[in-house]
Write a structure and sequence with these properties.
The protein is of the alpha/beta class. It folds into two domains: about 35 residues, no CATH class; about 180 residues, Carbonic anhydrase (Beta-carbonic Anhydrase, Chain A, 3-Layer(aba) Sandwich). Helix 8 runs antiparallel to helix 9. It binds zinc ion. Zinc ion (ZN) binds next to helix 6.
């Protein structure tokens, strides 16, 4: 199994090139700590690396990745809430200005939701995945029913977008996120990347639709983003 060896070889390339070229940046990050102003919540899928998609530098984004880039609702109990801990740190300690929920096309988690292959499975045999994806099961059932009536609906694609909207709504169930958004110090963004065509779609808050970002995307005239 040579895969870990290839990681070590990659590390050696990194140490002899990028790390040297960006030594000042790494020294500053080591000495001053991180102060990223953007949090990205992305899928664990190996094909969709947010630092590649957004071409960012170390220190620029606070990244959380999990199955299907989902955020569960605010539940202040004694459970071990990894997503909640990460968003709490990002918002209350790093004081990020944006949280971006980055979905992606052809998501295996979304496909598993539709197939139902892990519904009711034992822990260790898909049970953790099934329970995690149950977060969007009501939306899946709704979209499946709509697609049966209207065959032109791409149910898989529709659920990928709806899952982003659900995660954004769940983020707003955290009191400190709702408060920061109301105060204007935090903006929540939704986006979806398709590796097949390289197109990023961004949730337009006014229309509620995901709009493709063209290379002529004008940030200056688009203050809502
Ligand atoms: Zn995925």
């Amino acid at each position: 199994m040579p895969e870990f060896r290839s990681l070590i070889e990659g590390y050696r390339r990194f140490r002899s090139s990028d790390y040297i070229e960006q030594r000042q940046r790494y020294d500053a990050l080591a000495n001053k700590g991180q102060s990223p102003k953007v949090m990205v919540i992305a899928c664990s899928d190996s094909r969709v690396d947010p630092t590649r998609v957004f071409d960012t530098e170390p220190g620029q984004m606070f990244v959380l990745r999990n199955v299907a880039n989902l955020v569960p609702p605010y539940v202040p109990d004694d459970g071990l809430h990894g997503v909640s801990a990460a968003v709490e740190y990002a918002v209350t300690q790093l004081e990020v200005h944006h949280i971006v929920v980055l979905g992606h096309a052809r998501c295996g988690g979304i496909a598993a939701s539709f197939s139902g292959q892990f519904d009711g499975a034992e822990h260790g045999a898909g049970g953790f995945i099934g329970h995690w994806m149950s977060m969007i099961a009501p939306a899946r059932d709704r979209i499946r029913a709509a697609a049966e009536i209207s065959p032109d609906i791409d149910a898989h694609a529709a659920l990928e977008l709806e899952a982003i909207r659900i995660s954004l709504a769940n983020l707003r169930s955290f009191p400190f996120i709702a408060a920061a958004e109301a105060a204007g110090t935090l903006q929540l963004q939704g986006a979806l990347f398709d590796i097949a065509d390289g197109v990023l779609r961004v949730l337009d808050k006014a229309s509620g639709r995901f709009v493709p970002v063209g290379m002529d995307w004008d940030l200056a005239s688009d203050s809502q983003h």
